[in-house]
Amino acid sequence: MARARKSDKPTVSKSKAFSIFEAEDHHADETPEELPKDEAGRRKIKRQYEELLGIRVDKLRGRILNRERINKTIEGVYFICIDCKKVCHNMDDGLVEDPENVNNRCGACAKAKGIPVPPSGKGQAAA
């Protein structure tokens, strides 16, 4: 009778084994300490928006370009500031949002105009 070959690989390795501590470590990586990597990604997207829009930035100033869900509670917003005409993100530059969506400002421009900025300069507030 022929014998079945034994595999050189073990059926359950330590790297694939379930561990409660590994699951907790994985969730800990998604905390705000990882923002520098996210910030670099937002810079890249802002640069791509500037290249894509070109001269239309003047026409679209003050408007929201895109909303994204960062996690269940945080919303990211790409917009063009009405004063400095730069592509901004609310997490980096702050956002003072206009209810009509035509006069959105970054935190620095809003502060210069004397408009109240949300705490820490980041987030959203109605102007």
Structural account:
Helices cover 34% and strands 12% of the residues. With 127 residues, the chain is α+β, with helices and mostly antiparallel strands. The chain has a 3-stranded antiparallel beta sheet with strand order 1-2-3. A hairpin with a 6-residue loop joins strand 2 and strand 3 (87-89). The longest helix is centred in the middle third of the chain and has 19 residues, at 35-53. It is elongated and about 90 Å long.
Biggest pleated sheet: 3 strands, antiparallel
Using the CA coordinates, give the radius of gyration: 23 Å
Shape: elongated
Number of domains: 1
Mean pLDDT: 75
Total beta strand runs: 3
Strand order of the largest sheet: 1-2-3
Multimeric state: single chain
Structural class: alpha+beta
**CA distance, first residue to last residue:** 84 Å
List segments where confidence is low: pLDDT < 50 over at least 5 consecutive residues. 23-31
Measured by DSSP, the beta-strand proportion falls in 5-15%
What is the string of SSEs from the N terminus onward? HHHEEEHH
What structural keywords apply?
single chain, three-stranded antiparallel beta sheet, 5 helices, 3 strands, 34% helix, 127 residues, alpha+beta
Give the helices and strands, then pairings.
Blueprint: H1 20-28, H2 35-53, H3 57-60, E1 64-69, E2 75-80, E3 87-89, H4 90-93, H5 107-113
Short description:
This protein is of the alpha+beta class.
